[in-house]
Amino acid sequence: MLSGRSLPMTDGRTSRAHSRRASTRSALLRAARTRFRAQGVHDTSIDDIVRAAGVARGTFYLYFRNKEDVLGALVDAFIAAIRGAVRRIDTTPGAPSPTEQIRDNLRRICEVLERHEDVAVIVFMGPAGLDGRSAAAVERFWKQIEAMVCDALAVGQGLGVVRPCNRQQVAIMALGAVRAALSRTLAAGDEPTHGSRRPRFDEDFLEELVTYPLRGLLR
Amino acid sequence: MLSGRSLPMTDGRTSRAHSRRASTRSALLRAARTRFRAQGVHDTSIDDIVRAAGVARGTFYLYFRNKEDVLGALVDAFIAAIRGAVRRIDTTPGAPSPTEQIRDNLRRICEVLERHEDVAVIVFMGPAGLDGRSAAAVERFWKQIEAMVCDALAVGQGLGVVRPCNRQQVAIMALGAVRAALSRTLAAGDEPTHGSRRPRFDEDFLEELVTYPLRGLLR
Amino acid sequence: MLSGRSLPMTDGRTSRAHSRRASTRSALLRAARTRFRAQGVHDTSIDDIVRAAGVARGTFYLYFRNKEDVLGALVDAFIAAIRGAVRRIDTTPGAPSPTEQIRDNLRRICEVLERHEDVAVIVFMGPAGLDGRSAAAVERFWKQIEAMVCDALAVGQGLGVVRPCNRQQVAIMALGAVRAALSRTLAAGDEPTHGSRRPRFDEDFLEELVTYPLRGLLR
Amino acid sequence: MLSGRSLPMTDGRTSRAHSRRASTRSALLRAARTRFRAQGVHDTSIDDIVRAAGVARGTFYLYFRNKEDVLGALVDAFIAAIRGAVRRIDTTPGAPSPTEQIRDNLRRICEVLERHEDVAVIVFMGPAGLDGRSAAAVERFWKQIEAMVCDALAVGQGLGVVRPCNRQQVAIMALGAVRAALSRTLAAGDEPTHGSRRPRFDEDFLEELVTYPLRGLLR
DNA sequence: CATGAATGAGCTTTCATTCAT
DNA sequence: CATGAATGAAAGCTCATTCAT
């Protein structure tokens, strides 16, 4: 107490924690992500998180208000990453074909999903256990994506490549198809193969991921 | 009651008791359904349910083992109803076109959804807050539907009407598209219009519900 | 429903119950005894008892106020039987020796124990799980027996056959010795030998049962 | 503790916390002991215990898994204390007489009983309300003591000081006699005299506690 | 007499959150 | 910043008991 201690740690746990990670906050995020994936969001207690993060219970509340708050942070980061992966379709002459561009978008999205697998599962599998607030964030995200697709459909109709249709409904269905395929592939990596891991997103999968939704809406 | 009963019997007493039993049970199911829809499954406590049903706490446990048990009962009934709405595609000559038959199936499914709206929302919106066990029941349902679609695709390929493709993936996507559309329409009836209620499933909606998924997989 | 039914039973259970037993009350006592022995008094619920007796829940309360009440009835019957087995020591000349008479008393007590085994276990094994009230009944019984022994010691001291001692304490110890031996032998019949049953009270056992306590107090 | 600590350490914060921990735990043990004695184990609720300890409900579960767990802790401590009080009989020449040694053992046991009165009552009065696990612990304890006595009898028979007999049965009876006397004296301190307290174990009592059981088995 | 559906008090246990150190 | 003991509201579930039939 009186001595000049230059090192803050009192035991292995703490020291390990400090040296190993950038910050307590990211340790908590990491731990939350992992536990959420492993036990589901709402079967994960704050205790599970802090234990996994190797910090004290009270520390959690220095960084987050509650469980939904962490989840919100995770989801926000994930959504930002997905946003970053999506490029607007370039319709200027000389640009790659729209189909090509869509495929590239989906390829980048798949990469993001692989990097953020834990959170992706949460967002894609439906708002499983996303108590109120957080579910709303996810919902907002999907609405925005949907609006983007809707706009793209309008453009496509203008260009005469998209068939006449109820754009909103078709956007929903196209998105639903993609989401279902991605969600299933994500889920597949969960329990079955513990050794090899990952059937993952290969080129054939990607091809169908583009083909099916487009056939439904192209002329 | 009025008749002169001179001998002990499995009398009105028993039958009345039985109908009381039946009605309490269905009151509980009704209440559970309503609360689940209103607050989400896992934010609904046993207390919420019994209060809504107007019975005592202990009464609940005369009929169900726990919350998942009620949910299971609701989901089972719903699944049975959906099953009852689906007819196998009849490929004998003279039968209506498969597209026609698919549209009829979907129309009947929509009717079931309207009748079982509360439970439908739970099953369609994804395993939102479905504590472990219950989520499994819903998951099983979807797996079975998926298998049915997969089989249908195989038949279709045999007949040369379905394009060559990864059947499993296409089944997932077709189902995802339909599910997304239905789910959204169901959800639409939720909060916004409390007076008029229901944008519901009209013929245009139904038409697109058939068209979009089929275009993706037909030759 | 409309047919003239001349038999009062509504199902096998009821008819079986009525024909098999003398009265509902003794069926309940029987059932209680058995369950108490099998699960312990306080792990036995009213439900266990009525189920074992094959009667309805409410019927129980036509005959007993509560669990302790049944236990009380069982214990009372047991105590009466024990009392009936004990004869005052006859000190008139020409009577068998006191030791002989004590041995006979104990022999008769052993017989009672065998007949009332279920209740005997409860009374002898100590107030195991005897919720307050019931424990008191058992306690009263032992106090009375103790008083009897105490009196006998006084008589014995008067006759000069019992050594001078703290009669109360010696009575307690003599009783404790006998009780321990009987209790252990009773307990022995419980779980171990399921096929042969019963090591039970043989003559050697009885001999020591008399000898040991008496040596401690005779001159 | 006194040494100059110049390095990070399990510092005052921690040690203070530890002593708080320790004191809460022992407050709970104390409270449990007292309530168990006053109301009987199984009529004592967790609520009774925490109220008596002056802590919140949840605090209990920081230290014990359930009621049986506390009881187990109490019983274990008691049994250990009793064990510590018993010395093997020393038969080497020059040692005090066996009777003397036995008396000393019993005297020490009586002292332990007085110190652990509350728990002693539970263990001695029979496994009252000792749900499953804990009852087993007590049972095991008595079996071990019994085995010790049995061995001692064998030795005594070898030395020719113990009469020929069924050693097991005699051990049970001797133990039963002692246990009954101790148990009764313990119980005596319970309700009657709340002011003066304690008739307790005096030398006369102790003398008879040795004499009676020994007379039954010595030649 | 007999029934069994209904009751609700009461118990155990969990867990998000606070706060003194 | 970090800690972790303490809190207490809230949930789940059981079971003795009542009462209309």
Major interchain interface with per-chain residue totals: A-B, 38 and 38 residues
The CATH architecture of the largest domain in chain A is Orthogonal Bundle
Oligomer state equals homotetramer
Structural class of chain A, by secondary structure, is mainly alpha
N- and C-termini, Cα separation of chain A? 77 Å
Percent helix of chain A: 55-70%
Mean pLDDT of chain A, to the nearest integer, reads 83
Question: What is the count of structural domains of chain A?
Answer: 2
Which terms summarize this structure?
homotetramer; 219 residues; mainly alpha; Arc Repressor Mutant, subunit A; Tetracycline Repressor, domain 2; 2 domains; 10 helices; 67% helix; 0% strand; elongated; disordered N terminus; DNA-binding
Structure in words:
The structure is a homotetramer of 219-residue chains. Chain A is mostly helical and 219 residues long. The first copy, chain A, contains 10 helices and no strands. In chain A, helix 5 (67-85) packs parallel to helix 8 (133-159) and helix 8 crosses helix 9. The first copy, chain A, is elongated, with a radius of gyration of 21 Å. The model of chain A is unreliable at 1-21 and 192-196 (pLDDT under 50). Chains in contact: A-B, A-D, B-C, C-D. Chains C and D meet through helix 9 and helix 10 of C and helix 8 and helix 9 of D. Chain B binds a DNA duplex (21 and 21 nucleotides) through residues 8, 11-14, 16-17, 20-21, 24, 45-47, 55-62, 66-67.
